Amino acid sequence: MILPRDFYFRPVQSVARDLLGKRLTHLISGQRVGGIIVEAEAYDGEQDLACHARVGKTERNKVMYSQGGHAYVYFTYGMHWMLNCVTGETGYPSAVLIRAIAPTDGLEFISVQRPNVQEKQLCNGPAKLTKALAITGELNGSDLCDPDGALFIEQGEAISDNNIRITPRIGIQTTPEPWLSKPWRFVATLS
DNA sequence: TCTTCGATTGTCT
DNA sequence: GACAATCGAAGAA
């Protein structure tokens, strides 16, 4: 059961929190590869100086300005892909960075993608999970609400508030306050 | 266990 | 020409 587009038409912080426990799937040659989302971060518009859209609309970040429910996939550090879910109405650049999942489907595919890696470390980072699920720039702009698409997010398990940790965002060291300390990272604690 | 640092390229100024 | 929403290896303690 794929999440309806309405799910993404809410404040990006709410979407980030509620994505925890949902099921991310990449369909590869008909095979389901994916897992449960356990970590996500919110990036909220041009005023958020940690958000790519802080410099306005560019060729790179234009997908963030599209309608909620689409995938924003970008390349960074010369070697890593990152996966985001666009939120909000067309024209408002906000998105949720998917930072980690607990893999449940296509484990043999994942182990080929990430050889010699302990199970717990397979998808516990934003670049790790894109590598594990073979997500690249080809999927940039994909509609996550399309049941015939290759990449989609389905209803999963509800995560209660006392199983969620909220912290500042990671990897934005050069971002000035107050954005640096915004509690916009959501982590589902296992068990 | 903790900290430092190299890899590697698309994108923006 | 600078640097990035990172990772993992290597070295120190």
Explain briefly what this protein structure is.
Helices cover 12% and strands 30% of the residues. With 191 residues, the chain is mainly beta. The mean pLDDT is 97.
Describe this structure in words.
It is a single chain. This protein has 191 residues and is mainly beta. The longest helix has 8 residues, at 12-19. It has helices at 12-19, 107-113, 126-132, and strands at 23-28, 31-44, 71-76, 80-86, 94-105, 151-154, 164-167, 185-188. Strands 1, 2, 3, 4, 5, 6, 7 and 8 form an 8-stranded antiparallel β-sheet that branches. The chain is 12% helix and 30% strand. A hairpin with a 2-residue loop joins strand 1 (23-28) and strand 2 (31-44). It has one domain (5-188): 3-methyladenine DNA Glycosylase, Chain A (Roll). It binds a DNA duplex (13 and 13 nucleotides) through strand 3, strand 4 and helix 3.
Count the domains. Answer: 1
> What is the tally of beta strands?
8
Largest sheet: 8 strands, antiparallel
Question: N- to C-terminal separation?
Answer: 24 Å
What does the radius of gyration come to?
15 Å
Taken from the alpha-carbon principal axes, the silhouette is globular
Order of helices and strands: HEEEEEHHEEE
CATH class: Alpha Beta
CATH topology: 3-methyladenine DNA Glycosylase, Chain A
The CATH superfamily is Methylpurine-DNA glycosylase (MPG)
Mean pLDDT level: 97
Instruction: Please estimate the helix content.
Output: 10-25%
Structural class: mainly beta
Unreliable spans are none
CATH second-level architecture: Roll
User: What portion of residues belong to β-strands?
Assistant: 25-35%
Count of helix runs? 3
